[in-house]
Predict the structure.
Amino acid sequence: MDKNDLLELIRSADELSDCFVFCISAYQFLLEQQSEERPEMLAWFFQSANKQLGGQKNKESLPKELSNRLDDYSYKYKKLIIGLIDFFSIKGYSEEEYYKRLWDSIEALLPDATMEEKGFCLLLCIMDARTPYYELPTYIQLSENQYREVINSIRPSLFELDFAIEVSRGQRENTGLMSCVVQLLEDLDSLNQKSVLLAYFVHSYQKRWGKSKTSEDSGNITGTIQEKEKTSEPSSIEDKNKDTSFLPRKTPRDGEVIANLKHLSMNSDEYDFAIIRREGVVVLSDQGKTLLQLDKIFELTEPDVTKNLNAILKQHGIIKQEDEFVVKIDNWDGNANEDESEELRIGKLTLFACVSFMLNMKIFYV
């Protein structure tokens, strides 16, 4: 099969089952390419497939046998693919480097998978909203103190923005409001100031007009200046409604620490996971470090915050034990080398995806 044959398969696809077929063919096609040419071909494939599928990715029923088979593959590989995309998509790689790392990781992690299973992994990539990949400017990462400094420097602009959002209520279209936002952005001096104002606008708009489906699906967690600056003491009724399950606790951790995995850089912090055995069960743990970071950013007793943290845990299949987030390692063979243990590698990527999801949203908080 050559490139034109594959393109014809993509263009003739009408249903998800057809997409599954051309993904299998695409994987074989990509295997046949020279290693230096493969990232470019993978980028071309994802762009072509995404253009063909458009908004029809999830709108069909499949034959039961195929549906069951794809469900099995999804259970085995979805977390892995999401973890890889989570891990690589925020690094600021060039398009070539991103696709090279994505391909090499799939090949390294799934050496014994069938061609059908590997084709399904390509389908999972296509179904992800971050495919095709775009090289973006480096993300701004502000510390809490830096964020507060920016907030204080643009406070007059935020007051104007709040007023503009309020007076736009009842308007059939929001061109006037958006033109005001554009003008406020143009009046600011730095990218940091503009980024913080936009983050504040997104939250304030959603708060007043209702959250969009996208924000609900992604477990959106945000806060406003006004909410964070409230100094009144909560009533006794409010105290009773507080959820304290996410507050860090200074309780001794039991269990045998088998090994520590390599440090991961998250939001400029060095971060590490530990393999721990407790009562015969082996888990990969964040050692309570995520909650310590979250406690610096969020009000961890607020119902909206705890609700969304629980949603993120559920989405990634992560278990909360006391103040730790853990992944169970069901088939522990005593090998602490993540390069040689597929389950350990997948567990690390899944746990990383979960905690990075939480920590990378701190830009929305004051």
Summary: Residues 256-364 form one domain. Confidence is low (pLDDT under 50) at residues 55-59, 211-240, 263-269. Strands lie at 256-260, 264-266, 269-271, 274-278, 281-285, 319-321, 324-328. The chain has three domains: 3-127, 144-210, 256-364.
